[in-house]
Write a structure and sequence with these properties.
Layout: H1 9-21, H2 32-50, E1 61-69, E2 82-84, E3 89-100, E4 111-115, E5 129-138, E6 142-149, E7 161-168, H3 194-207, H4 211-233
Antiparallel strand pairs: 1-7, 2-6, 3-4, 3-7, 5-6
């Protein structure tokens, strides 16, 4: 399966140099090879992984607990309350945010989820008096979470905290004005960083008209990507995925684990039925 050993960007660049030129000497910072490798990591390898069709990578989900506490709106305020979303925000998980109300605890939770409304639904709340939430913005200027009402003193939501989970853009390495890595010890987010080595090596080989090495590296890159997809989609280790259906069970027997006994699925057992 996919290799989960982290590799820094500098280690990746060194490995690309070895794969494409058979040279174990790291490329000099600012050299043509170095700049090409850094550029292809940023614009080819990571975007290819990030935008793999039909996959939402686990590595790109982010939890944002208790990011904002709702307070009463001053009577002089006329603009809707907007909460800036993170700069790497892509979209909201399930189109949902949740409020944790004052006094909520782990043993006695008081949490309510809200589905985000579409912008055209704002017209259905013309008085801005319904507790609704919207997302506005774009990738250039950034996104905001907008409250569709003006919270008033004494309202149920006063003191509640907003939490959400969002899908982010993948991180790419930061570079200086000269093209050098700002933080060469940073690591990419993907499970198998070998994909970066193979993908960049394949493209460099193609640019150098080395079709044989291109095909070898491209095949390895595709295999690495496939392995990451498989790891993403497989069930968790030791996941209990037995059929919870009386008709699908074997019947009662004192020699079988409880969950295989019909009594386990009735009110005489644990109350599942």
């Amino acid at each position: 399966m996919a290799n989960t050993s982290p590799m820094s960007y500098q280690q990746l660049i060194n490995a690309i140099q070895l794969q494409t030129l058979n040279d174990p000497t790291p490329p000099v910072v600012g050299s043509q090879e170095y700049n090409i490798y850094v550029g292809m990591i940023k614009t080819l390898a990571i975007p290819t992984w990030e935008n793999e069709r039909g996959v939402l990578w686990d590595e790109l989900w982010v939890n944002q607990p208790n990011v904002y506490t709702i307070a009463a709106t001053p009577s002089t305020q006329t603009a809707q309350i907007t909460i800036p979303l993170p700069s790497d925000y892509k979209f909201m998980y399930g189109g949902t945010i949740w409020l944790t109300y004052p006094g909520s605890t782990n043993t006695s939770p008081n949490v309510r989820s809200f589905k985000l409304k579409k912008l055209n639904e704002m017209e259905l709340n013309p008085r801005n008096n319904q507790p609704e939430f919207y997302v506005t913005g774009n990738p250039v200027s950034g996104y905001n979470l907008v409250l569709g009402w003006y919270p008033q003193a004494g309202g149920a939501e006063i003191g509640a905290t907003i939490s959400y989970r969002y899908y982010k853009f993948a991180n790419v390495p930061d570079v200086t004005s000269t093209g050098a890595l700002s933080n060469p010890n940073d690591v990419p987010e993907m499970a198998d960083p070998n994909f970066i080595i193979y993908k960049v090596s394949a493209q460099v080989s193609a640019n150098n008209f080395n079709t044989t090495l291109y095909q070898i590296m491209e095949d390895k890159a595709n295999y690495s990507l496939l392995q990451m997809r498989l790891a993403q989609e497989m069930s968790g280790n030791f996941q209990d995925d037995y059929v919870r259906d009386v008709d699908g069970l074997l019947g009662y027997s004192s020699y079988l684990p409880n969950r295989y006994n019909s009594g386990f699925w009735t009110n005489n057992g644990t109350g599942y039925i």
